Amino acid sequence: MKTRWKILVVLGALVAAGYVGYQLVAMDASPPQDADLAPTWEDVPPGENAFECFLEAANLLHWPEEDEESPPGQGGGPSADAADAATAGDGAPAGTPMAPILAGDAWDEPRVREVLAANEAALKAWEAGLARKGFQVPPPATIEDFAAVYDLRWVNLAKVALLRAHLLAHEDRTEEAMTEAMKVVRFGHLIEGAKGSMSTYAAGATVKDCGLTVLTYVACNGVPEATVLKECGRQLAGYGADTQGLAETFRVEYACGSEFLKGFRPDEVLRGLPTLADPSNFDAYSLGREVKLACDDIRENQLSLPTRYYYQPNRSRAILGKAFRAWIAAVPMRYVDIERRVPVPEGAKRRLIWPNCAGIALCRFLAPSDIARRTLRLKCGENDAVARARTILALRRYVIERDAAPESWEALVPEYLEALPVSDVDGRPLRLPTLGHSPETGG
Q: What phi-psi label fits residue 71: left (phi over 0), alpha (psi between -120 and 50 degrees) or beta?
């Protein structure tokens, strides 16, 4: 009899311990301390925010439809809807493709003048924006706000300005053409620091890269004044990747994702999340299928466990914050170090025995590590592009002033260049063209 009672007591203790353990596991944590992840919004008066002018320019844009591209990079929001919505105005008349013209591989002056005439109002609004003091995109209220249709339009707007630079270059107005290309570089830098999504930052980097390409092309195929080359090189020193802007971009993405997690309700986990994870709406997220599978499991077993077990908003926000803190810390790093040190967020578990499985799935959705790493890689490549452009401008200046090409890149130091550039990708000396064998060397 005593043995039976002992067995019952032990079984009762095990059941009680299991119940208490389950309650502890299913209990959400305290709200995370995330003040360090709050973005800093500036109070830019409406009349001084260049966003209004740039948005107007984007809406006035007429870009040839055959030359439209997919959005440059993806951020913390739906990509397919943005791509579908990002039509470039009514479209300029079809004709010679713009890509080879912008690359300097073809020239069609009547076609270029036609596109520029169609975009005269857009360029005027763009110039007005460049003259304003501040530039900040509106704070996103929901993750849907990250489907910014202006990202792609701003890239195409920059291309229109670069067509004008090419036209000036063909009219032997080299210095004016270089000034126009520098405006585009500055435009890209402004976009990077505008506190938008990762997609917006990628658009800025794309704009800047287009401007650098045309700038070096014009400098090497024209005969600019050495003083102009020197001034452009000096300005480019301040147009490397906007690391502060990228850190703010990550904070904006976290803040928006955190608000989404706080407002997410258990019934939405069952009804809304499979729709959010639909690849037709979010084709940029390779993990969308995993999110949907986790939610399918929740639906199949929703009577087995309470919703507070498989979705805990505060624990989810802590996971999200951990990922974004790691990425913010990685912003100043070279990419070779980022690959070693930046962790991949926790994976989604398909079975409901894993606490907060829906929250973990949501975090992988709201903090896609592949896109964050791609953005960090873009930042490093952008620094290399600026350094390479400065080096080429220094070389062109050397050739113009001395009427001869240097025997080596080292000959540019220190009179024309403070030091030969080091790659922000791998930390090695930046790979440069072989002297005398590249059209961009001026040799």
A: beta
37-55 pLDDT, tens digit per residue, is 999 988 888 789 999 999 9
Q: Using CA of residue 330, residue 334, residue 339, residue 341, what is the dihedral sign?
A: negative
- Rounded CA-CA distance 84/161 in Å is 24
φ, ψ of residue 40 in degrees (nearest 5)? -100, 105
Q: Work out the number of other CB atoms within 10 angstroms of the CB of residue 95.
A: 14
Supply 409's token pair.
Answer: 């890149």
Please provide residue 35's backbone torsions phi and psi, each rounded to the nearest 5 degrees: -60, -30
Quickly state the pLDDT bin for 9 (edges 50, 70, 90). Answer: low
pLDDT of residue 296: 59
Compute the distance between CA of residue 403 and CA of residue 205 in angstroms, rounded to an integer.
Answer: 34
Instruction: Evaluate the CA torsion angle 295, 301, 302, 306 in order and state its sign.
Output: negative
Q: Which two tokens stand for residue 163?
A: 């067509």
Q: What pTM value is reported for the model?
A: 0.83
- From residue 204, give the alpha-carbon distance in Å to each of 102, 169, 214, 375: 18, 24, 16, 11
DSSP 39: -
SS3 for 298-345 is HHHCCCCCCHHHHCCHHHHHHHHHHHHHHHHHHCCCCHHHHHHHCCCC
Helix (H, G, I), strand (E, B) or coil at 183: helix
pLDDT in tens, 135-145: 999 887 666 66
The overall average pLDDT reported for the chain is 79
- The closest alpha carbon to 107, from 59, 63, 163, belongs to 163
> Would you state the pLDDT for residue 293?
57
Neighbours of 127 (CB within 10 A): 13
- Contacts of residue 39, Cβ cutoff 8 Å, sequence gap at least 6: 139, 195, 248, 251, 252, 255
Any long-range contacts for 10-14 (C-beta under 8 Å, 24+ apart)? none
Which sign, positive or negative, has the C-alpha torsion 400, 405, 409, 412? negative
Q: 400-419: per-residue pLDDT in tens?
A: 999 999 999 999 999 999 99
Residue 310 has a pLDDT of 75
Nearest CA among 178, 255, 192 for reference residue 221 = 178
What span, in angstroms and rounded, lies between the C-alpha atoms of 291 and 345? 14
Contact 255, 40 (CB under 8 A): no
Percent of the chain with pLDDT over 90: 51
The rounded distance, in Å, linking the Cα atoms of 435 and 404 is 12
Q: Tell me if 116 sits within 8 A of 163, measured CB to CB.
A: yes
Are 359 and 311 a contacting pair, CB within 8 Å?
Answer: yes
